[in-house]
Amino acid sequence: MKTKVAALVVLAVILFLQSCIPSLYPIYTADKLVMLDQLPGRWVNSSGDEKMKISLNGGESGQQETWDFRQGENKNYLLIHTDEKGVSAAFDVHIIQLGQHYFMDFFPADLPCDDADHATGKHGLLEEENSFLAYHLLPVHTFAKLELQAEQLKISMFDPDFLKKILEDGEYQIKHEKVDESYVLTASPEELQKFAEKYANEKAAFLDGPIELKIKL
Question: Per-residue pLDDT for 50 more than 50?
Fold first, then answer.
């Protein structure tokens, strides 16, 4: 059992490093934070794209994935993400505006007591890890571009392969640490903002198949 869990931990970390760009520091600063009136509420996946779903035990999808954004008290949101297995996880979300673009910062948070019955790993098994939390198994931030139109959200995660390419080609310089063949950013929030704004319109900078959500009425 210990060997199986250890192998799953290694697999999860590999998936994490290959599926997003982790950052030691957040992308937000107080002067760039914004609140969006359209965001609070429960959203559901509208694209049918399975790319962002991770199932460490290979189980089949069961219910509809939901993203429940709740407005916080300090220019932040609490996101309760419930995956296709019905397992929930919480994230502290901040949104900044850089020019004409919005960016989201995600960081794992504690589930409120009312949601604890659906908590990740409620039986102590890694196999029950929430699929979006699997991208945040390390205590680091991730960030994405946010596009909001009427009753639709599009969340585009930055591509770690793109970061690897521009770093190794010398195209862009930003503080980082190399972990195996992947990179963890150690740059300041201001440096992260410059990176995000520079590549905001470059399709190659983002993973294929953005997360597309629609409001659940």
Answer: no
